[in-house]
Amino acid sequence: MxxxxxxxxxxxxSSKDQNSxxxxxxxxxxxxxxxxxxxxxxxxxxxxxxxxxxxxIQTASAELLNLDTIQDGMNIMGIVKAIDxxxxxxxxxxxxxxxxxxxxxxxxxxxxxxxxLQQNDxxxxxxxxxxxxxxxxxxxxxxxxxxxxxxGHKQILMSLRPTEVHTELSHxxxxxGFVFNGAIEEIQEHGYxxxxxxxxxxxxxxxxxxxxxxHVVGELIFLKVKKxxxxxxxxxxxxxxxxxxxxxxxxxTDPNIDYILPSTIVQFxxxxxxxxxxxxxxxxxxxxAYINEHQLSEALALPEDYELNSTLKARILYVMPxxxxxxxxxxxxxxxxxxxSVQEFKRGDIVEKAKVHHLGTGGVIxxxxxxxxxxxxxxxxxxxxKGNYDHDQILIKYAKKTKHKVRVLDYDSMxxxxxxxxxxxxxxxxxxxxxxxxxxxxVTAIVREKDDxxxxxxxxxxxxxxxxxxxxxxxxxxxxxxxxxxxxxVLAVNPDRKTVYLTNRQEYMSKHCKALTNLQYAHxxxxxxxTIVKINKEYFLVKFFNDLKGVLYKxxxxxxxxxxxxxxxxxQTMAFRILSKNGDQITxxxxxxxxxxxxxxxxxxxxILESGLEINITYHPESDYEMVNDDNESQSTEVKxxxxxxxxxxxxxxxxxxxxxxxxxxxxxxxxxxxxxxxxRDVPYFQTHLTNNWKNLNTGDILKAHIKNLENDIVELMxxxxxxGKLVKVHLKxxxxxxxxxxxxxxxxxxxxxxxxxxxxxxxxxITVSAKLTDVWxxxxxxxxxxxxxxxxxxxxxxxxxxxxGYSIGAHKCGEKVMTRFRGVNADTNDWQYEIEKTKxxxxxxxxxxxxxxxxxxxxxxxxxILWVDYSNELIYISNKECDVSHVSSERNIPNNLxxxxxxxxxxxxxxxxxxxxxxxxxxxxxxxxxxxxxFNDFENSACAGISEGDFCKLAIIHDKLPIAVPENTWKxxxxxxxxxxxxxxxxxxxxxxxxxxxxxxxxxxxxxxxxLKVKEIKIEKQHNSxxxxxxxxxxxxxxxxxxxxxxxxxxxxxxxxxxxxFEDKIPNKIVLIDSNKESDVEDIKxxxxxxTTPKFLPGISDFWNxxxxxxxxxxxxxxxxxxxxxxxxxxxxxxxxxxKKLTAMEKFKxxxxxxxxxxxxxxxxxxxxxxxxxxxxxxxxxxxxPNNSKHWxxxxxxxxxxxxxxxxxxxxxxxxxxxAYREDNEQLNxxxxxxxxxxRYGTKESFDEALKEALICNxxxxxxxRALEILCDGKKTQEVIEMISLITKKFKAQPEVWRxxxxxxxxxxxxxxxxxxxxxxLACLPEREHVNTIVxxxxxxxxxxxxxxxxxxxxxxxxxxPKRVDVWTQYVDMxxxxxxxxxxxxxxxxxxxxxxxxxxxxxxFKKYLEFEERFGTAADVEKVKKLAxxxxxxxxxx
Length: 1439
Hints:
By secondary structure, the protein is α+β, with helices and mostly antiparallel strands. It has 38 helices and 59 strands. It has a 5-stranded mixed barrel with strand order 4-5-6-8-7. It has a 5-stranded mixed beta barrel with strand order 9-10-11-13-12. Strands 14-15-16-18-17 form a 5-stranded mixed beta barrel. A hairpin with a 2-residue loop joins β25 (456-461) and β26. α24 packs antiparallel against α25 (1190-1202), α28 runs antiparallel to α29 and α34 (1348-1361) runs antiparallel to α35 (1366-1378).
């Protein structure tokens, strides 16, 4: 018995499992295939018949194309989906998209494009792709290549060129009625010569056989052969143009499938209803054809809806190679414009109840809104499940008529359906399309990658691409982590780029940030947060949310801040107030400031910078005080500010020493100077002086100002005047007493200068001032003594602070004797260097002091005398001479026997920036300090002129206690000047008194025993009147106090004078007349007068807060409660004994309030300090306050270069590279460029090459090369420029900006011919999408450098080929107008308005045309343009 196992069948019918496996293997070329064998028959006598010929291959389904079945070389019908200047996007069957380049339209079109680019196209026969094609147009082409793009997705490249599509066709098989696609090769008088691509076929289309006469060379049209003349080698045919709906061919008896091209309409007979479509025949049952269910005539139609043996019109989609299966569509698309223009759903729309129609090709077929067709692909369904799953179990969920919530992803015009998804994550995604997000909203974004183009990062917000630009990026570490989440705020949404712009800056992320998202919300005086994106010479451009922009004019800004615009920079985010709105134009101003000029507040030091102090000010808003809340900290607001280094002290040599006295969290007082800039040095001034404004500023007032700029002997000063936005200019001669000597004056920015108001001009609102020493100083050397006393007091405070902080140098003071060790001689200065044993601090003996003495041995111990301690440089100056050590005592005060004496012999030991330090010949006595200046305004250093270290001199003591003196000749000079001035005043006043009635004597105090002296005190005031310029003089006489009271009063005035050292000369001093015969008494009273530095006057002058209002009526004439005119007297003289009504407390308070209100009005009017610094100190302060500003660093370099200090300028550049933050790549690049510029002009070729090499490593090489090229052009280095151009055009030939920059370089070195040749090289190297922009750039360069003919030729060809480039049209017209070619410009505008351009763009051209005619044409021309515009609107309302 033979055993037969099931697993080893012997013949018979195969099992079902084997059949199913074979079916799977036979799915090729887009169809399920199986072999049907005919019944066997005996072989015929005629020969062997192959079994392959007896087999027929049929499909089991009508599956469409996919990426696995599509092949190179297939001819496929498609529909135009999108158009741009260089590419077409074609929708193919199977929901695929192909890309067609502009060079793959036809050979004729490629040739026409080249001629256009080469300026040979003079017949206007070129049209861009946007005019040749429209959305929804039917085309067919050949698959060239299927490749992967940069993102890993497959990309289909197609060609429409007839020579490519018809490469396999021959003229011998072309017959009458043949329908194909051809390109116009040549336009003749009677018709068109057609490029067919068919071998040996010549084609001509007469004009009477075309649809219209607007065809251009290269355009593809559908044709039908009407007549053909056949020959063995060449055939000639006459054709007729067809519309897509008329591309019908009749059934043929012996058809060739290769000559039935896609998009042709044939008769289709239904023979079988398949599960996913229809099966039938075409060409009298010669070929089997299939129609997929997505290609039926109606979107929701089913194969069962079509009767068997019915005949329908169908359009051929494609023919599968080898099998020759034909695939058709019943959707003929006779109205493509209507079909593509109306879509019910947009991308991202959610359909709540999408009903399942059936399970179809590619996925689940849905019914959307009972009308439209949707597809839920199987791939999408599978993505909802992870791991193993049961396919059938999943599909149970999608049973017929079940409803699902889906989201629309896209619309496929070829299959006429919406592609959907039911993925829960996608459906529930809040941000899926651009319509789901609005400016001002807070979103969570994911960091994707760093974007160097914008200097920020590419982000992902839901399914939308986002960008954070550099200006809107908050301070972050070196790089954000990829895929990290970040809370951001939406700035703007750009539909064109399908991008949302974000920010994560703290200013915008604050809950209290007011966002301006719509123009209608831009109300006047409303405050919104904005960012400065551009700084111009005249204005700041500020950007808000939703791309809204406003302008902040600098002229308006100067009214608020003076010239302190250096505090603003691009990217600065702050609050702005809307000043006005005119249409779309918004004018801005700054929001109200927290602090006003002169407002003193308590500050906390946050950080210690080399440029100053970064501070925090905590304050409570006014509204908080009205609320009763125990938690004061929660109601407080913190403001950040800066105290610049120069604002720490009035004395430049103490700045760095004062800076080291501050530590973080140190609390002190500061006064607001401007916005967030505060000053510590000016606190005492503002404590004792009211802040002036324009109204209460009087002639004669003395103000504390500081220098902001010095240029061409013009000194610009900033005055402490509120609401005065101008710098006061003073000529250098107005600062000098002996201007005729032309003494060299060293002035530094921020230097303290006192000025005297000489006058006010109300019309121009200007102030005239004088800064001469004699105008602001009282000519009293005792004031100079107080000036030095304040300096020494500040030095003492610095020493105490250093000692408290544990600095070793704080343990030493002047006049102290210390033990030192000799450390050597400085090779540069020859100074002897010592080290103090106790503290190890470095000490120096000046070379002039040691003279020709031989230095001691190293480590030799010596007792030395400390002459001065330099806390800024941490250096101590000492004397090692025994005579100095023995002659100087450590006492602080001067002996009483030396007070007021002159002619004292002394020796100069040391000269510093502020003092000359001397030792008296007779000792022991303390060191004596002689000031170099008598006053802040002693710019000529007249106090110790001509005195040097080591000289012997005679001194005069000018202080009552401290050892402060001046040279005897200086003392004599000012003493004699003061005596002469007093005598002249006495004589003038006596003459005045002779012509005035005698005043009655006032009653004397009863307690006085001695006979009182007759003292006549006269005050002269000058009243300015706008109509009367005469001077009115008034006088008053009062009796003096008894001698005993006089002495007390003298001491009182003496003590008060120290409080108002430099502010007393706002009103002329009172003049005292002596009416007595006793000379001794006269001398005593004169001495009393000389000790008075300033009398106490009305409120509003120097010592307002200390003024005794109760004594005003006995001391001044003309004082009043209201204004100056109320204080005038009819006769001009008031008797000394006459008493005024005593002011009440309410009147005093009212007087103070009125004066304060009058003064505060001018405090905000500060001078404009927008200037270029003039000293190293100011440059250091500037760059340290804003280290990321390359402009400041470059100006610093220029400052050194002006002094030919090349090494210092180079050092500044290196310092800037280290100081600028790594994220500020543009700022760093600017510094590198400045360094390259320096090396090129002042260095060697080797140093330039070395700097260039470093710059290439640290920056973007392309940017460095382009900037270096500019530098070489500017330096006229012709050979180097040529070498550089050759290098970068090889390295970066794919970068369009390289060719533009190199062409510009050739023009700069006057090599125009090479620049013209460069255009051809650029077009050969650059991708085609950059050709147009490159040609336009070269045209602009030709126009810029005077070659208008070439520029006109280039631009003319561009606008001819790309008429929708409105920007090129406008540039073209502007160029012609500038060249005075008015007629040519008018001709260009006439050409522009007849182009097929969208109405929005055409509006720009008509507006340009109208402005042109209004300027250069007549009234008739203007009316003509308006008429043309109206006609265009009527004719193109559908655009």
